[in-house]
Amino acid sequence: MSDTRYALCNCNGTAVLDAGALQKSLSGSSVIAGQALCRREVDRVQALLADADPLVIGCTQEAPLFSELAEAASFGGELRFVNLREFAGWSAEAAEAGPKMAALLAQARLPSPAPVRAVELQSAGATLIIGPAEAAIDWAERLKDRLEVSVLLTRASTGELPLRRDYPVFSGTEIVVSGHLGAFEASWRQDNPIDLERCTRCNACIRACPERAINYAYQIDLDKCRSHRACVVACADVGAIDFARAEPKRTGRFDLVLDLSVAPLIRTPHLPQGYLAPGRDPLAQFEAAQLLLGLVGEFEQPQYVDYREKLCAHGRNGIVGCHRCVDVCSTGAIIAAGDRISVDAALCQGCGGCATTCPSGALRHAYPRPPDLGLRLKVLLAAYREAGGRDPCLLFHDGARGRERLLRLGRSGRGLPSRVIPFEVHDVAAIGLDLLLGALAYGASRCLLMTDSEEAESYVVTLRAQVDIGNTLLAALGLDDRALEVFAADDAQALEKLLWSLPPGMPSLPPASFNLSEDKRSALEFALAHLQAHAPNRPAEVALPAGSPWGDLSIDKHKCTLCLACVGACPASALTDTPDAPRLRFLERNCLQCGLCVNTCPEQALALVPRLLLTDGVRRARVLHEAEPFHCLRCGKAFGTKPMMEAMLSRLSGHSMFATGPSLRRLQMCADCRVIDMMESEKGQPT
Fold first, then answer.
1. Are 71 and 64 in contact (CB under 8 A)?
2. Is the pTM of this model over 0.85?
């Protein structure tokens, strides 16, 4: 870190930049400051590129130019770019933005996170174009020389097939498309009598049809057809026309899909890569076609999520408990698979909402990992504080639409307030309660999550739920019930107004020294312990909204028979039994509030109680229920419990098989004694 060098520029004197103060804040690092590093002072950058030590340039606008210079100089070090101009130097509070600049620059000298596993995708260009004949055939003709196209007609009342058979043409309804780039599967029902794969396009059927029900797309208008079957006779030698086709289902595999339907056939909020659905707009169709041409070859994407099956609380013994990740995923990459889930890494686009909502940490966002984000937060906030900054407000945004909005705000508006520090992530949906509370523990006074109308609704709902839980906890601790906030930033003026009208944040707390753990629940415990230690209030417990990852379990002791089905179902060992007596124990620290125990209980005796217990009792197992053991009537051996036996006798007493006294009495014996009793009964001995 100390070998990192900085090249900063005030952009022709338009951006406020105190190089001396920044040099002091970035102790141990070399800092040069210029006025036009991208133009007349470019030789200063070229001189820095002669050395292999890491180089951070305080400009993102000219990143392409500086990258070209680095390539020409065979620069072997790490080259990074930090935006200082729009995020700080052009702000209406630019004179006070020095601490923010120091924070952004300090964060930039951290080593790159360890690379994640790659998911390989291969596309040979086999493209299925789906849509009405006039549009689908038109685009097939344009793309046939560059892609291996096939056409699936959804409507053929107009248009006609091409004069040359350069590519396959199908027709069908009930179309289903699934898969991802390089591995799409399509199925459809061929309910039109003419099989376009067998049709020779000789037009004999068109000439033979008395109702003119067949067009030059070789499809029969069944509303006009009067079943003369003259077309069948005309096509007898070829056999392409069959009004009673026995197997109408057709399937195919493709690398790419261009869906020209009015509404996409795939209805997920985020469509799979390689599946483009521009609708009927000609310009959108043109742009989609251009994108298709770039999707041929071999590609890699990060494996965004790690799944640890042993921690998963989705199901046990066919009973479903937690299904939050399945519900929230915007791409359909996560599906239920028995008692576990299945994650399709090729469908996943790295939104991270699954990891945010997962109560156990079975799903972990890996691009980057929470510890890497935590280190960035810790270093950034420490540098801001050491440079004299106060009341830091973190603004989480994505690296696409979010970054662009903030850059435009800095260019044409008042920019960002000096205390608002942008923090870029792959997708804000990946920012869960562990990171938010961790940021507050490191010294942030407020955390804002910026979304927009293009964000999947399921992610916005999840983020709001996380924020509600966090603010409820902070309010109970006497800190700030508005320290966490989710907002949409579709309107630039509204965004500027919101940022410049922010109230003061949470009171400053001593910064935490811990690093965020890889384990989600451990990270939450550390953050909460730090906040609790420095909070004005010390409540014993905090009631939380439904869906919280912590909570108690209430039990109706009159219903519970201590069958212990809940113990076998609990994925987190929050519920345990004892070998020496019929007793149900509960360790609240481990409870995920997944609901598996509630759904498993045959007596419906359990209920979830979302809360956070802030006393040492959360780490001690307590007895939820216990009962006297039931003893065998014959040998006196303990088996089962008295409530269980009473419930069983009550339910079976009306059954014909247990109408006699000996039968009911036998139920009250242990397994060995039942066998002995049955043998004695068969020999006529008294039981």
1. no
2. yes
Q: Where are the beta strands (DSSP E) in 238-320?
A: 249-254, 256-259, 275-276, 297-302, 305-307, 315-316, 319-320
In this prediction, residue 1 has a pLDDT band, given cuts at 50, 70 and 90, of: very low
CATH class of 1-81: alpha beta
- Residues 389 and 381: their CA atoms lie apart, in Å, by 9
- pLDDT tens, 154-198? 976 677 899 899 999 998 899 999 999 999 999 999 888 988 888
Q: What is the pLDDT of residues 344-402, one digit of tens each?
A: 999 999 999 999 999 999 999 999 999 999 999 999 999 999 999 999 999 999 999 99
Where does 551-626 sit in CATH, by number?
3.30.70.3270
Query: Residue written as tokens 């009015």?
Result: 262
193 in Cβ contact with 205 (< 8 Å):
no
Domain boundaries, the chain: 1-81, 82-113+368-533, 122-299, 303-365, 551-626, 629-682
Shared fold status for 303-365 and 551-626: yes
Distance CA 310, CA 519 (A): 13
What residue type is assigned to position 96 of the chain?
E
Residues 6+ apart with CB under 8 A from 504: 391, 445
CATH assignment, 303-365 = 3.30.70.20
What is d(CA 673, CA 666) in angstroms, rounded to the nearest whole number? 8
3-state helix/strand/coil string of 18-84: CHHHHHHHCCCCEEEEECCCCCCCHHHHHHHCCCCCCEEECCCCCHHHHHHHHHHCCCCCCEEECCC
Average pLDDT along the chain: 93
Measured distance CA(274)–CA(340) in Å, rounded: 28
CATH class of 122-299: alpha beta
